[in-house]
Amino acid sequence: MVNPFDPKTAFLAKHAQHVVLIHFPIALFITAVAFDCLAQWRKSQTLAAAAYLNLLSAAISTVPVVASGLAAWQWAPSWDASQA
């Protein structure tokens, strides 16, 4: 039986890497927006720097997300519409 909470199941399952990775840049972007709003409200350069670093990390982390998405799309099993 497969344990859904086992990290090996999530990271090593066939075509699952994109599904796991896609949420990371989204969370970083949302956190960057929250930090930016707080920085504007509190006039804090430290919070603005945290927002910038979160946004930069989100941008950088999209590279493996796109690569894994293209790989999953390329290696996806073919689907025949007549079987639906």
What does this entry look like structurally?
The two termini are 28 Å apart. This protein has four helices and no strands. It has 84 residues and is mostly helical. The protein is elongated and about 50 Å long. The longest helix has 31 residues, at 45-75. The protein has a domain at 30-72. The chain has helices at residues 7-12, 17-21, 23-42, 45-75.
- Largest sheet: number of strands, sense, barrel closure: none
**Rg from alpha-carbon coordinates:** 18 Å
Q: Identify low-pLDDT runs.
A: none
Termini separation (Å)? 28 Å
User: How many helical stretches?
Assistant: 4
Number of strands: 0
Brief rundown of the structure:
With 84 residues, this protein is mainly α.
Write the layout of secondary structure elements.
Blueprint: H1 7-12, H2 17-21, H3 23-42, H4 45-75
Helix pairs in contact: 3-4
Throw out a few tags for this protein.
0% strand; elongated; mainly alpha; 84 residues
